[in-house]
From TrEMBL:
Keyword Transcription annotated: yes
Top-level taxonomic group: Eukaryota
Record function comment: DNA-dependent RNA polymerase catalyzes the transcription of DNA into RNA using the four ribonucleoside triphosphates as substrates. Specific core component of RNA polymerase III which synthesizes small RNAs, such as 5S rRNA and tRNAs.
Lineage start: Eukaryota, Metazoa, Chordata, Craniata, Vertebrata
GO BP annotations, alphabetical order: DNA-templated transcription
Species assigned in the record: Nothoprocta ornata
One Pfam family linked to the record: RNA_pol_Rpc82
Name listed for the protein in its UniProt record: DNA-directed RNA polymerase III subunit RPC3
Gene3D superfamilies: 6.10.140.1450, Winged helix-like DNA-binding domain superfamily/Winged helix DNA-binding domain (1.10.10.10)
Keywords for the protein's UniProt record, in alphabetical order: DNA-directed RNA polymerase, Nucleus, Transcription
Region described as Disordered: spans on this chain: 196-231
Length: 556
């Protein structure tokens, strides 16, 4: 765990959970597994504060605990899980794309609360959807429940481990081990949720209902708990990562081959998305006949053409698809380890061109393709003068983008009798880039927080003016009225906004912003949203790099 990761984790914990949780989390990240009293002493907090902070972290699966031999409970922070907070907007956007607004809100509620029962999350989402509907319309609990069942069937949500019944005995350890059988992980309890979402009452209605609510409180204590009491659900982050990985493979196939090939691979991935583990190197074998029957209805290709495409994919050097047998017209699998090829494509447009220019990028691509080259060979193949090629190679060598390998002819390693070969260590370069991405996201978060704090009043005023202008334009206001509203922002304030805009543009630099916006309680200023979107864009690169490193280490 690097300092850049610890710093980024601390910033994410502070932004989402506050200072106390950040202090507890940063202490565990920096020192490793610690008991309760050691955390309180290291973080400078009271035991009560540490307990509350640990409760929040455990609720969101950011900290795990383990009972030691002497009965002492030690808590350990999960750095990788904390870094996933940065990817929450992407999870929510994916749920919206696949399952609509209901799926989006279900995933958002589970992410915001860590763990929830099905009945609780269904009621809350139904209430939120009812708030957005026209007067007189409400959201039925059954509709929300059906979407939740679909999320569970496709493994995007899963049950949380439970305390075994034996642990509830008086002799139970101080921290019982949570267990969950794999067969029950996605089993949805049978609930009879009847009703519709409710709208929030006004203050007057709340006062009128206060006495009635107090009266019903005593009766509610004696009521039976819901049938799913104690069965909690959480978001299956690995399943979302599997979906992102599949999308990357489909995109790489489309770039390499054509749209038909990518649709065939998409069908194969969709058929095995539930049966294949997220950590498996290959998908489950699928016969050509099964693939043909599962192709989209509107995709008219004959069986013979499908077999030709599968053969072409299996013979491709990048090995997106492999053939594992001849039964059923041929058995085919999709290689998950082909993520390495995706990263190679990303490398082709990578920072050598942004940091050192297009000629450095040409040399970098050349080394990726040829593996090992001497300096003279680099000059000849890249068609770059010797002095410039030498300078560019040394620049990239100093940045650890390329490495130099010595192959001596004699044991004395004399320079005159030694070959010096330049090469690209892709795994080492990926780790270096991942470290820089962590630092970049941390800098973006700090910059966004600074600009928001320094320009809070001006940004709020600008948002109010923009909202008034939008509502007046929708009602057909005259040009003079609109101009009067625009003049609410004075000339010095406009100049300050322009300065802020220039600073934001410098901050986001070349980072793209075509990503889903991050969900927040209040909509941020469009200027600050650009930094926020840049954080998400960098996280996409982080995901590719992490997936590549993980898949490379799995290779035999």
């Amino acid at each position: 765990m690097t300092q850049a990761e610890i710093k980024l984790c601390a910033l994410l914990l502070r932004e989402h959970f506050g200072e106390i949780v950040e202090a507890v989390g940063a202490c565990l990240l920096g020192t490793g597994a610690q008991p309760l009293h050691a955390i309180a002493a290291a973080a400078g907090l009271s035991l009560q504060q540490v307990k509350k902070g640990l409760c929040v972290l455990i609720q969101h699966n950011l900290v795990t605990y383990q009972v030691q031999r002497r009965g002492l409970v030690e808590y350990e922070a999960q750095c990788g899980r904390v870094l996933r907070i940065l990817r929450y907007p992407r999870y929510i956007y994916t749920a919206k794309t696949l399952y609509g607004d209901t799926g989006e809100l279900l995933v958002e509620e589970l992410l915001l609360n860590g763990k929830m029962t099905m009945s609780a999350v269904v009621r809350r989402v139904a209430d939120r959807l009812t708030e957005t509907m026209e007067d007189g319309k409400t959201m039925d609990y059954a509709d929300v429940s059906s979407t939740f069942v679909r999320l569970a069937d496709t493994h995007f949500v899963q049950r949380c481990p439970q305390v075994p019944e034996a642990a509830e005995a008086p002799e139970a350890p101080p921290a019982p081990a949570l267990v969950l059988s794999e067969k029950d992980m996605y089993v949805v309890p049978r609930l009879s949720l009847t009703g519709r979402g409710k709208r929030r009452r006004s203050c007057d209605e709340d006062e009128a209902q206060e006495h009635k609510a107090k009266k019903q409180k005593g009766d509610g204590e004696d009521a039976e708990p819901p049938s799913d009491d104690g069965i909690y659900w959480q978001v299956n982050i690995d399943r979302f990562h599997q979906h992102f990985r599949d999308q990357g493979i489909v995109s790489a196939v489309a770039n390499r081959m054509d749209q038909t090939s990518s649709e065939i691979v998409r069908t194969m991935l969709r058929m095995s998305e539930v049966t294949t583990s997220s950590s498996a190197p290959y998908t489950q074998p699928l016969s050509s006949n099964e693939i043909f029957r599962s192709l989209p209805a509107g995709y008219n290709i004959v069986k013979q053409v499908l077999d030709q495409y599968l053969t072409l994919l299996a013979d491709d050097p990048l090995e997106f698809v492999g053939k594992s047998g001849d039964s059923g017209g041929g058995m085919y699998t999709v290689s998950i380890l082909s993520l390495s090829s995706i990263l190679i494509h990303r490398f082709h447009d990578f920072p050598p061109s942004l940091r050192f220019g297009s000629r450095c990028a040409r040399i970098f691509r050349l080394l990726l393709r040829k593996k090992h080259l001497e300096q003279k060979q680099v000059e000849d193949f890249a068609m770059i003068p010797a002095k410039e090629a030498k300078d560019m190679l040394y620049k990239m060598l100093s940045e650890n983008l390329v490495s130099l390998q010595e192959i001596p002819k004699t044991p004395d390693h004399a320079p005159s009798r030694t070959f010096y070969l330049y090469t690209v260590n892709v795994l080492s370069s990926a780790r270096m880039l991942l470290h820089r991405c962590y630092k970049t996201v941390a800098n973006l978060i700090e910059r966004r927080q600074f600009e928001t704090k320094e320009n809070k009043r001006l940004l709020e005023k600008s948002q109010r003016v923009e909202a008034i202008l939008a509502s007046m334009q929708a009602t057909g206001a005259e040009e003079g009225q609109l101009q009067e509203i625009e003049e609410m922002i004075t000339a010095p304030e406009r100049q300050q906004l322009e300065t802020l805009k220039r600073n934001v543009n410098k901050c986001v630099g070349v980072v793209g912003t075509e990503v889903p916006p991050s969900p927040r309680p209040l909509p941020p200023s469009p200027l600050i949203s650009r930094i926020d979107a840049s954080e998400n864009q960098v996280d996409e690169t982080i995901f590719v790099l992490e997936s590549f490193i993980e898949s490379t280490l799995k290779k035999p």
